[in-house]
């Protein structure tokens, strides 16, 4: 009987996409993977192992140190939270030693601090680190997540067949939906298909997922960040149009404040991620982050670019001899003239800042009433500039200058 009800429910939602009303702007929060990986050794490394204590501590810091007040709201568990086997009745069980109070208690803790709770699973037989996956248990697991009051599900794609993903990911999205508990749905569907030589069906993906990974895992290095920046620039015609309110490309976590990025490089990652309308998921030890990196992560002006309600993903509009210019249309709008966020990136390594000089017109800013231009890192206000005005910026090696040009209305209006 129950399964008949389930089938009826399923078919009644078959024609609809995700439409869960969530992630109207890219999700912001904290995610364990890049920094804390699959450290399960709570005996020798109790402060850094994947455990309820780690997530509680990060929750406390997100609230106490001002991250929540600039928009970071999800505390997301990644891989390695599970026991290696399901319970005798087929349920997912959190590792009993590392999560002694169970997932519902962690979820309650995070909610009691005013934040939201995310969890990780995998569409295949196993998660990437070898814990039980959801295949064969999709309904059970969707209901379990709802019972745990999960707000965000990242569904990875290891140990699964990429050809099955069109069906599998969309089905699980529907199963999440019909639990009645709204959950942001983060998919790894395209990236595994691309690796398998399949051209992803992005129009299907964007109707079923709130965000999706297109490319490699980020690692703790500038080379990795550059590699990701190049991927999103080189493939922007295919990728950028799929982003919009409720559905986003995910270039992976922010590694700002870890070991691999200099201050300049960290600023570049934050600037480009905001141009890409990327989810802002910090993966860093918030207990020990240096103030200068915290400052980057809490830059409200750049966060506002990322969170721009129009939700248009930006693009690389210039690339020559190590200099790149990235541009994103944002609000406010005057008639059909957008405002813009512009990132000037210096990929050169020749030790001295590079000058870039360009007219607003060359950047596509052609409204005759002009643009109020300000620097989003340096708090410099250039005043109102016009399409023929030439602006000159000095960009440090592997660094960025980020400007916003806010469209001006004609004075007689
Ligand atoms: C994959 C994902 C990562 C992370 C790991 C966990 O590699 O892309 O983001 O979730 O699995 O094992």
List keywords for this structure.
single chain; 413 residues; alpha/beta; 8-stranded parallel β-sheet; 6-stranded antiparallel β-sheet; 13 helices; 16 strands; disordered N terminus; binds alpha-D-galactopyranose
Molecular shape: globular
Order of helices and strands: HEHHEHEHEHEHHEHHEHEHHEEEEEEEE
Number of helices: 13
Structural class, from helix and strand content?
A: alpha/beta
Hetero ligands? alpha-D-galactopyranose
- What ranges have pLDDT less than 50 throughout 5 or more consecutive residues? 1-16
Query: Main β-sheet: number of strands, strand sense, barrel status?
Result: 8 strands, parallel
Based on CA atoms alone, the radius of gyration comes out at 22 Å
**Rounded mean pLDDT score:** 95
Helix content: 25-40%
With strands numbered from the N-terminus, the spatial order across the biggest sheet is 7-6-5-4-3-2-1-8
Can you give a write-up of this model?
The protein is α/β, with parallel strands linked by helices and 413 residues long. The termini are far apart. The strands form three sheets. The protein has an eight-stranded parallel beta sheet with strand order 7-6-5-4-3-2-1-8. A six-stranded antiparallel beta sheet has the order 9-10-11-16-13-14, with helices on one face. It has helices at 2-12, 33-36, 52-64, 102-112, 138-147, 165-178, 189-195, 202-208, 222-234, 236-239, 263-275, 291-297, 300-306; strands at 28-31, 74-76, 116-122, 152-156, 184-187, 211-213, 248-250, 280-282, 315-320, 323-334, 337-346, 354-359, 371-375, 381-385, 390-395, 400-407. The structure holds alpha-D-galactopyranose (GLA). InterPro entries: Aldolase_TIM (IPR013785), GH (IPR017853), Glyco_hydro_27 (IPR002241), Glyco_hydro_27/36_CS (IPR000111), Glyco_hydro_b (IPR013780), Melibiase/NAGA_C (IPR035373). It comes from Drosophila gunungcola (fruit fly). Residues 1-17 form the signal peptide. Residues 311-399 form the Alpha galactosidase A C-terminal domain.
